Amino acid sequence: MDDNHISTMVNMNNITFQRGNQTILSSIDLSVHKGEFLGLVGPNGSGKSTLIKIMLGLLQPDAGTVSLFEQPLTTFKHWERIGYVPQKAASVNLGFPATVYEVVSMGLFSKVGLFRFLNRHHKKKIDETLQQVGMLEYKHRNIGELSGGQQQRVFIARALVSEPDVLILDEPTVGVDAATVQRFYQLLSRLNEEENLTLLLVTHDVGVMTKYVSHVACLQQTLHFHGSAGDFEESDLISMYGENVEILSHQHGGHS
Amino acid sequence: MEAFIQYDFLRNAVITGVLIGFTAPVLGVFIVVRRLALITDALSHITLTGIAFHLFLSQTLSILTGLSPVYMGMVFAAAGSLLIEKLRLVYTAYQELAVPIILSSAIGLGVIFISLADGFNQDLFQYLFGSIIAVSRDDLAAVAGITAFVAVVLILFYNQLLFIAFDENQARVSGIPVKSMNLLFIIMTALVIATSMQLVGILLVSSLMTLPVAAALQVAKSFRQMFMYSVIVGESAVISGMISAFYLDVSSGGMIVLAALFLLFSAMMYRRASGRPVYHPGRQKETAAE
């Protein structure tokens, strides 16, 4: 790519989204810059997933514009530069008869294209990516036989295998136990630091996340805080979540 | 066995059988994993509507009498598939609603055409339940053409179709043209159904797309194996079903379905005997294998 100098990976400008008469998102400006590990937090129903879907063109906003790699979303073609790990089990059929290897290979499809098949280089890349997320030994296992945390790591491998510049994760830790969540964040921050991968993590689980991310954005219909993780204070959260303070618990995990 | 080599119509039937024993299960794999198995029923019934329409028209338009009704069936099935795709977008949260809407319209229209065409005759009966003497040279040519079409599409778009079947949203985000791929796929399915029904019959054609896949689901360990086992079961069912139908002088569709059911049952037994656990989605322990 000749556009390596681009530093704004995602730019959302004045996004408004309504469902019926209800305003889900109101005038959101959000940008993700190269090398950032941005945590997008907000309570359930605050519009986080909606914002991500608008970012990826899966939903049309009522107002506002999105650009990816400084190109308008409508003309953006380089989808292999974006890795997306959707909310667990939201759209994936987990009884699907595919192996871990087959699931990860899907991540290469937009790159491989027509008439082309997976070659030795692709196969090596799949192995390396599985190694990276610690799932290589499960390569030939059926995706449905794995635990929730393992499946999530496989989906991350699928998003990483095309060597994206940005990885977007929507609530990746829902239904995963606390110890696994911890290791999961360590993996993400390693990818951010060592591979210089830009990360956008969407979560309602504020406690653990703030230790790893570089920037925080708080969403509750509008954007309440957007800055570096160091400037982020718990009072920002309490003003946003109100009474619902148990989400601050660092023990938070397990099934939610 | 000599009879199958000796008589033209039997040879046509066997070749047709081998071709649809491949195409029907292969498309069935994608259909079943996408939980759209009932769409095949809707499409087969709309094929019947097309055939009834042809029989009705050919009473007044003599040019149609020489033509196989299958072509009209194919036209109706393709149109029906487009309607289903449209309805699935209208009812995104209730995609299966497209099936009963199309199914009942197809039967309603079909019954009207049948009564206009002087009720049931031998021709129509053959299309309902399948017959190995129903396959003409024309029909064979149509099946061969469609098989070639399916094979080419699968070779070109296997990866894309697999990704869409696994996760439609994710496929869209990866830049795969999901809408046009879905359209291509459902038209392909409609054509395969329309051409399979002479042998298997309209009422049973969906079984050829779903039973082999159901058997493969029991034993396959990967998506690739799903195809392999589905085709093996599909071909075995078609060939053994046709031969036994000929010697027992019964409907080929019925025998093919019975053969497929027998293989499905065997696959279930094999799975049970091999001790492979039956997988229940959503019931696994989160930390089980960590």
Short structural description:
The complex is a heterodimer of chains A (256) and B (290). By secondary structure, chain A is of the alpha/beta class.
Task: Write a structural description.
Chain A: Pfam families: ABC_tran. Chain A: Residues 10-246 form the ABC transporter domain. Chain A: This is Zinc transport system ATP-binding protein. Chain A: Belongs to the ABC transporter superfamily. Chain A: InterPro entries: AAA+_ATPase, ABC_transporter-like_ATP-bd, ABC_transporter-like_CS, Metal_Ion_Import_ABC, P-loop_NTPase. The complex is a heterodimer of chains A (256) and B (290). Chain A has helices spanning 48-55, 100-106, 109-112, 120-132, 148-160, 178-194, 206-209, 234-241; strands at residues 8-19, 22-33, 37-41, 63-68, 71-72, 82-85, 166-170, 198-203, 215-220, 222-228. With 256 residues, chain A is α/β, with parallel strands linked by helices. Chain A has a domain at 8-91 and 168-248: 3-Layer(aba) Sandwich (Rossmann fold). Chain A has a six-stranded mixed β-sheet, with helices on both faces. Chain A has a four-stranded antiparallel β-sheet with strand order 2-1-4-5, covered by helices on one side. In chain A, helix 2 runs parallel beside helix 5 and helix 4 (120-132) crosses helix 5. Chain B is mainly α and 290 residues long. Chain B has a single domain, classed as Orthogonal Bundle (ABC transporter involved in vitamin B12 uptake, BtuC), CATH 1.10.3470. In chain B, 78% of the residues lie in helices and 0% in strands. Chain B contains twelve helices and no strands. In chain B, helix 2 runs parallel beside helix 7 and helix 11 (223-248) packs across helix 12 (252-274). Chain B is globular. Chain B starts with a helix and ends in a 16-residue tail after the last helix. Chains A and B meet through helix 2, helix 3 and helix 5 of A and helix 7, helix 8 and helix 11 of B.
